[in-house]
Amino acid sequence: MPRQFCNTADDRGILREEGDVTEIYFLLKGEWAIGYKSFENDDKNLLNEIEFVDTPADMLLRGVVTAKKNINYGYIGDYYVLASKRSQFYYYAITQVESFALTKQFMFKKIFKKFPGLHSEMLAESFSRYIKEFRQPCGKKRQETINNFNKKSQYT
What we know:
The protein is an alpha+beta fold. The protein has five helices and eight strands.
């Protein structure tokens, strides 16, 4: 099914951190990013002191910081759908993004019923890719942000 995400505050979100993931998205065109909640406890001054030049203003207002940007081709949500996990990061459009989606229901009720061994193979591959392309680099960036926040004195 075709999906389109725009670079407006209301239509930017592809996947939400801690949100249920019901589709795998094959991103064909556009600039998109992966971000995380910054743990800033609504202290917008602290967010402004640390530079987040790659993060759209509306996402910063929500406390979301960009960890990684991508352009054009890619696919996301495969590990979350195959493992029935919630999203660990925010995935959002920087420019207009065009994509296609495969629903979790279609995958499990149609494809995996016809090809029973396929689920475990896809899950293993998607987990490996998720760790390498998303969790490690974004987790590292998240930890750097936390360390930067901790360096700032709250009592000056």
